[in-house]
Amino acid sequence: MQQQITPEQGQNRINDQIEELKGNTLQEEQEEIGGGEQGIWYRFEQRVYKFLNIQQSHHSLEELRQMNRFELLCLQQLASSDYTCEVQRNLCDTEFNLWITTAYMNQGSLNMDCLFNNNQINDRLSLETISIICKRLINILNYFHNDCIFHLDVKPDNILLHEEYQFYYSKENIQQEYTIESGLQMLREQLSNEQIQMYDIKPDYLNLQYILSRYKIEQPNEIIRITNLRFPLIEVHQLIYWIEKWLRFQNRSQFNPQNIYVKKGIKICFCDFGLARKFNRQDIDRPIFEYGFYKTPYQILGGIVQQQQQIEAWKIARQEDLFRLGITLCYLLNTNQHIQFTDIRFDLQNQQILLNFLQQTYNEQNFNLRKISIEDQEKLLQYKSFINQLSSQQEVIQNQFGTQNNPIYHFLNMIIEMLSFSFTPSNYFYVNQENQELPLNHIKHVKGICKILENLQRV
Fold this sequence. Notes:
By secondary structure, this protein is of the alpha+beta class. It is built from twelve helices and eleven strands. The chain is globular.
């Protein structure tokens, strides 16, 4: 149960914590990196503190604290996934839920507004890279949704990129594999020459990155066998903790210690679970959602159409996440100048086109547009235009290259499916395949250009 606290007391505690952190951190290692109605983000060294934005939120303090509390629970539940920022629980405010602390993601977010006026083709994300990002994000959402966690605020700002040292398992030259327990014991002995002792380990993602950094990997595709180096015992136990976590996430029950390597790669993950929800699989009551960054067709039409149709709440929540992901991908395509999505002029002709589309989509011939505000009609028209322009681009690709085994054609088709005005998702999104490698150099280059352009815009 949360302890009671007034807004003034809460703000004072936040101000005291910020001042303490500033006093203990070098000037170049601290900055305010973003903010919204729910929170304000500060970086101190290689950690990010998300403080409640008590003074500028329409939510009450207790609502904000409850959101923080649930966000921390989500991050802890998903901690083994590698799909969220690594939460630093010992640095979170677990007494009053006024702030959450995570590892700093050093390549920033997918927000790339600064690229709109940049015409250098090499300074953009390629279609192939955006396609790989799309599939990776679908797999991440699938993981969350299988745990009945629905983010409900998917947007470019909440999708982060991070260059890091990663483990890699070679499938070549495997003569014998061992159970996880036996293999980890062998690995302990191979990594250290000291007599094995057990420590009370407090795993820290930043410590892991520091330990692995001594491999000094220069090329993105370079891999180095982990047993090539020796470590102090305390570091051995840290490594064993993270390797075991990684192996279990890979669904491995057996492995060979000699086949574990270290490489450099790009991690992509979600942050900011302030609007996240969990649903019982048997719940068939239509949920009401906070609007978040994107207002979806369900939020506009869910109380108007198909009112007699029973739909499990979790399916609606899943489609909400997928729809927002589809809009985020349209944003990436537009920002990186692959498809220039145009604004739709709202007039009587387009209004009639929207009416016909909604009647056909929901099989309701007596649909009345007057139940929807003009602003929401314009939003629905814009979403429909995204689908039309994606379909036109598909047609161009089909005419030039055909559709068979054409990854870009199928990538665009995934986005069209996400943007459908249906309240439930297509099974098309259960992409049961290994994640493709995110191109480290390409993403680092584009993010570097973004940093330069953002700094120029500030001057």
